[in-house]
Amino acid sequence: MSSVACRSGPGRLRVRLRHVRIPWQRLRADGRLLLHQPLGLLGLVVIVGFGLMAVAHPLLMATVWNRARFDPIVGFDPTQVPHPKPPTRQHLLGTDNFGRDVLSQLLAGARVSFGVGLIAALVAVTISTLLGGAAGYFGGLADVALMGVADVFVLLPAPVVLLIFGLLLRMQWPVVALAYGLLTGLGGQAVVVKSQTLTIKARPFIEAARIAGGGDGHIIRVHILPGLMPLTVVHAVFTVVGAVLTESLLSFFSRTSYYLSWGTMIWLGQETFRWFNLGGQWHVILPPALAIMLFCSAFYLVGRALDEVLNPRLRRQ
Q: What mean pLDDT comes out for the span 31-56?
């Protein structure tokens, strides 16, 4: 009896490792295909560049930049008065009308954009996978109830809802990210995940797993969730784009608590566009506007490339 248990123990471990290794090998193969997508590769390079910007800011503040002059919120350079100043050797993107370094603000805003995008994507993917996966796999009353919730949130576009909430209370960026992820995950993403779950559930290997004695937990863990992984990755990338654009929109309309982001930089720049400067502060407004465009475009390109790589229909074309 003990020898059978000893033999079955390693065998069971090998089966579990195989279930982990197969999706990982498939993911590596898809990653190599992604590298052959020129636009997707360009998007990855831009994203890495923004990541380096986010990491560089605290390092520069700790080693190179004087905090009194380069702090993105309270910094002031008394040697460059009057402010605002156009780009100089000391301030590569110039200063705003409060004497703050625009490059330092831009780098600090990159951290906020990454935080908003990643938190929103994690929340949206988790909720949509749980909601849509449960509705598609179990069906019946669970399907009716969960898809009823999803149908309600499909009719509630996240940017409009958050703008309305912004009239009632000022939100910090983590709250914006959580709210956007919740509204997105409970809406259209859950419906798409349910459809994909139904497709996977109808495949022959699911019935074979049931005949072999696999329970619901085993089938969901081993077959359903790995099958949903490509779709959730694409959803996560596109959620980052929507979350960053929504946060920038809320910041531009001053619907958030005061914190430094690219949207806040544009809002403050247009509010004080001609203060002490009849020519306007183009050097203050253009960098964050271009940063938003490039950041969202990069994630969009990666999302399109992932969709072509992970979507079997597009891959056959």
A: 85
